[in-house]
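Assess this today:

___
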Amino acid sequence: MRKSELIKKFQGQEATIGIVGLGYVGLPLALRFSEVGYPVLGFDIHAGKVARLNAGETLIEHIPSSAIASANARGFSATTDFSRIGEADALILCVPTPLTKHREPDLSFVLDTLASLLPYLRPGQVVSLESTTYPGTTDEELGPRIEKQGLVLGQDIFLVYSPEREDPGNPNFTTNTIPKIVGGRTPACLEVGLALYGQVIDQLVPVSSTRAAELTKLLENIHRAVNIGLVNEMKIVADKLDIDIHEVIAAAATKPFGFTAYQPGPGLGGHCIPIDPFYLTWKAREYGVHTRFIELAGEVNSAMPDYVMMKLAGALNDRCKSIKGSKVLVLGIAYKKNVDDMRESPSVILMEKLRDAGAEVSYSDPHVPVFPETREHHFDLSSVTLTADNVADFDCILLATDHDRFDYGVIAKAALVIDSRGRIPAAANVVKA
């Protein structure tokens, strides 16, 4: 009875949706449910973030404040009070899943969040995990903890894994247009999960289990990590052969089948691609499997900042300068173009390497006006405005993230440009890295 009643509430848009974690994944999802007409309650542990959302302010650059204000007008609100968990019919967990210092899965955010929910769970709810994780997490970690509350999965409460597929800053896809994978702990859980997402997502892709859904997400990200590792290695080979790898990629991309173009860069960034493959390598070791291919791609991508540093040092040396004492301007500190997301950004790693080598480091990023406070990276800097005069003040310009808002005509006039993204035409003052 609970299953049919809950499905009916979702189909009638009468269910209250609880989104736990209001970041790059949770906030767009909350706005989508609100847009369709569901009552939405957002949960987050950061009081400042909650206050800004309730005041109609955005937290993410590509989401306008008007979208938050509109959702507020429709009844969306955010809270730090987890005792209100019982008000929600659906609880969607959108929290980070980073790695430990030993590159092993860190489920502390997921498990701590679940611990905050457990005292307030009730029959007739669905819990959906969207955080990327290793196969078995939903079944082995979440399921037993929920059952200890006296709730029977598939009867009293429903457990789902449905991985996020957000691509921040990509105007070609929105939350509702990206097909969504859904796996349930039981067949009844899957039915409820499909009803939960069915009104807000254009296409659902049901799979046989939460484990299959978890592995699907990892495969997607590993596919990208491995192919980016391949093209990064090809970039090094092409450089030795005095061939422009970007010309080669563009030519290869004209093949209408069997080839997908990936672009090289100074490393991997974002919360997914540099991290998620190691969730599978860790789990695979439990079964005696050594994932050499995945780990090799990780090694190649992790080494790219050192390759860029080598090219930069060599270029300065050719001009009778050293890194120490040189004024270096890093262009773009977000992990990819046209966003303000700095998670795992290779640009920041490059800034630290330059600082450690004695350079006077500055940065310019129209999407990040002030270097934010983070747990691991510390720079008391603000973004430098790019002008012809400013560019002339630096010994070296390092293009790390190729935002469209940069004036590449001005950048190309610098004394020395280290181009890790292939955006600047070849010239005597431009070194490809």
Notes: The chain has three domains: 2-207, 218-300, 304-432.
